[in-house]
Amino acid sequence: MNTNFKNIKVDLHCHSYYSDGECSPAEILTMALANGVEILALTDHDTLVGSLILQDLAKGYPIRIISGVECSVSWQRMELHVVGLNVDPKHTALIHFLQAQEQRRFLRALQISNALSQQGFSDNLLEVIEIAGHYGLSRTHFAKYLVARGAVPDTATAFKKYLGSHAPAYVMSQWASLEETIAVIHQSGGVAVLAHPTHYRLSTAQLKGLIKTFKSFGGKGIEVVSGIMKVKDMNRLIQLARGFGLALSSGSDFHKPRPYRAAIGGQTQIPLQHLPIWADGNLEFCNKE
Ligand code: AMP
Ligand code: MN
Ligand code: MN
Ligand code: MN
User: Are 177 and 72 a contacting pair, CB within 8 Å?
Assistant: First the structure.
């Protein structure tokens, strides 16, 4: 047990512009250092590109980088997110898995693009690619396109009016299964963490069912903190995680600097009496001196 690591600032979930964030890995590193973060994982959606760059950039700085990726998963007609921490970015099975996810993502982007054309936004795809700066298109990039076109005042409205579930340009994605995702994270030496469990709008019974399945497939941890949380919600998740014998993870889910949202490392802190995932022996560190 490494209790030295208990009382430190960490961030095990954030995004760069290699997925749907707005900052470069260098900017993420600068903010993390300025905020006193000592352990950091950049967990872009279905890509390790930014995480690899961060690992290189951070050499020589007083911060430990853990490789990370946030995988999109289809489960029981829902989309879940599973964070893989400490994966080996050079592992062949993981590389193939992420390539397949990239293809699914682009296929879905074509479908969203068609759906938006039917809503009167013709020829949108090239503009969306330009906004993203890459082909790993997220709904966030479509939302930004709609804001740039003046169709909606902000991205939240873009989701409500066009891109969210029940909206006209919503496309049910066909992501990897929960079982395959957890398996490939483990095969590549990583630890699977269920991301932001409160985002899925599940009843307690449904959430327990998900966590049970997640654990049975080899999942190791749960994000008991995602961004700025109510202490009551965090405590409920801590109790759930502990009840299932799962590790406690925490991240900001930072995408860009925003008022009233968590900065890098600025998420709610796990109370000191609970041993978090970075102190319980579940993680190794990639740029250990
Ligand atoms: P995707 O992985 O392409 O389906 O996009 C999901 C991403 O969109 C999430 O990771 C969030 O960053 C963002 N997102 C999801 N729902 C909303 C919302 N209601 N308002 C703003 N952004 C959202
Ligand atoms: Mn995102
Ligand atoms: Mn997520
Ligand atoms: Mn995220």
Answer: no
